[in-house]
Amino acid sequence: MDMKNKKASDATVTRLSRYYRSLVHLETQGVAMVSSKALARRDGISPAQVRKDLSCFGQFGTRGQGYPVAELKEAISRILGLYRTWNVALVGVGYLGVSLLAYREFKAQGFHIVAAFDNDPEKIGKKRRNVIIRDIRTLPEVVKKLDIEMAIVTVPQDAAQSVVDLLVRSGLKMILNFAPVSLRAPVGVVIRNVNIAIELEALSYHLASGG
Amino acid sequence: MDMKNKKASDATVTRLSRYYRSLVHLETQGVAMVSSKALARRDGISPAQVRKDLSCFGQFGTRGQGYPVAELKEAISRILGLYRTWNVALVGVGYLGVSLLAYREFKAQGFHIVAAFDNDPEKIGKKRRNVIIRDIRTLPEVVKKLDIEMAIVTVPQDAAQSVVDLLVRSGLKMILNFAPVSLRAPVGVVIRNVNIAIELEALSYHLASGG
DNA sequence: GTCTGTGAAGAGTTTCACAGCT
DNA sequence: AGCTGTGAAACTCTTCACAGAC
C-alpha cells in the first residue's frame, strides 16, 4: 500500500466510509465527476472537510473539474480495505448476535462471518443463519484454521473482558465490541465499541436538559 | 433542572454514561467515596478529564476526599435523564429491530419500547417480545396516545429518510438511527447514528493500512 | 499528605482563504 | 469562470499544574 497517509484521524476514516457510500450511489446514477461541495452536501459536511480528508491519502481530484467518481470510489475502497474480504468471528449468539449474522451490509462490504461462538451447551452445534455455533473453547484453533482476523463481541457485560482476553491470545487484533463495558487490551489491538444504551442516554440528555 | 451546565460536549455526555455505569458497580460493592483517579482508571480516561467533565454540571466532590458514590450517581442520573422513564417507538421490525426489543439494558435504564411499527402486512398485528407491531401509518396517532418521545429507526436505507420525516411530523425530537445513511432533519431534532458497518470499516482500515 | 476544581497550555480538528490548475 | 489542495487561523477538546479545601 503506497498511499501517502499523512495522519488520518478516526473522524476522517469514519467520514471516508460515508463518502464511499455516496460514491457508490452516484456511480449507479451514472455520475462521472463530483465536486467536494456536492459530496459534502450529501453528508452534511463542509466541502473543505471533504478535501482535507481526501488530501490525507493523495490527490484524487482535478482542479476546476472535481473528483472522478469511479476512481475515487476505488481509491477509498483500497484505503478502507474493502477491496478484499475479511473473515470475521462472532462471539455471543444472543438476539443481537443473531441479528448481526443476518445483517446484509456486512457481506456487501466484504465482511464474512465465518464462525460463531457461544458457551451455552444448548446452542453449541446448532446453526443460525447458516453459521454453525461452536464451543467458545475451540476459538483459538478455529481462528487459525479459518484465517479469522476480526471479531464481533456480543456477549453479556460480565463475560466481555474474558472473551477479549481469549481473542487477543488467539492473535486477533481487531475487535468490535457491543458489550456495554470498557475493555482493556494490549497496544496493537484495536477495539471499537458500539454502545447502544449510551446512544439513547445521550439523546435523553438533550431532552432532559431542555433541548 | 437547575444545574449549571457550562457547555458539555458530546464526548463529555458519552463519558458521563460510562461514569454512571462505574458508579452503579461501585455502589453495589459498597464503596462510599471514589477519587477521579479511581473512576478514570476504570474507563481508560485521565483523572483530569473526569474532573473537567463533572465540573460542567457542578461541584460534586470534596477536596482531599473524592466524590460520594451514591450522590454522584444520583446527580449523573438526573443530568442524563435516567431518573425517569422514556417511552420509545421502534420503527422497522427486522432482525435488528427484534433484537433491540429484547435488549435488557434499555429497560434497565428506563427506556421502554412501548410500540413497534412496520409496513409489512405480514408483520402488522403480530407480537414480538410482547410488543404489538403496528401499521407505520398509525404512527402519528400512536405517538400522541402513548406519549412517545423517542424513536429507534431500524428500517432499510431507502426507507430511512421518509421514516424520519414522518417521525418529525409526528413531533418527535430524538431519533436513534441504525440505517447506514446520512439523514436530514430540522434543527431542534437530535439524530444519533449507529452505523455498524462503518465501525467494521474503521477496523479494516487499521489492518489494511498496516496497523 | 490527599484530592478537587479550574485557568492556562497543549494537542487535535475544522474552517478559512487563496494560490494554482483546468 | 469553476474547483482542488493546503498552509494558516479558528475552534474544540484534553492535559497540565497548581491554588484551595479537607
Walk me through what this model shows.
The structure is a homodimer of 211-residue chains. Chain A has 211 residues and is an alpha/beta fold. Chain A is 45% helix and 18% strand. The first copy, chain A, folds into 2 domains: 10-79, Arc Repressor Mutant, subunit A (Orthogonal Bundle), CATH 1.10.10; 86-198, Rossmann fold (3-Layer(aba) Sandwich), CATH 3.40.50.720. Chain A is built from 9 helices and 9 strands. In chain A, the strands form 2 sheets. A 7-stranded mixed β-sheet of chain A has the order 5-6-4-3-7-8-9, with helices on both faces. The interface between A and B is large, with 68 and 67 residues. The structure holds a DNA duplex (22 and 22 nucleotides).
The count of helical stretches of chain A stands at 9
Rounded mean pLDDT of chain A is: 93
Assembly annotation: homodimer
Name the overall outline of chain A.
globular
Biggest pleated sheet of chain A: 7 strands, mixed
CATH class of the largest domain in chain A: Alpha Beta
Biggest interface, chains and residue tallies: A-B, 68 and 67 residues
Calculate the terminal CA-CA distance of chain A, rounded to whole Å.
46 Å
Number of strands of chain A: 9
**Number of individual domains of chain A:** 2
Task: Summarize the amount of helix of chain A as a percent range.
Answer: 40-55%
Second-tier CATH architecture of the largest domain in chain A: 3-Layer(aba) Sandwich
The third-level CATH topology of the largest domain in chain A is Rossmann fold
**Biggest sheet of chain A, strands in spatial order?**
5-6-4-3-7-8-9
Q: Which superfamily, in CATH terms, is the homologous superfamily of the largest domain in chain A?
A: NAD(P)-binding Rossmann-like Domain
Structural class of chain A: alpha/beta
> Rg of chain A to the nearest angstrom?
20 Å
Q: In percent, how much strand structure appears in the residues of chain A?
A: 15-25%
Uncertain runs of chain A with pLDDT below 50, 5 residues or more? none
The helix/strand series of chain A, from N terminus to C terminus, equals: HEHHEHEHHEEEHEHEEH
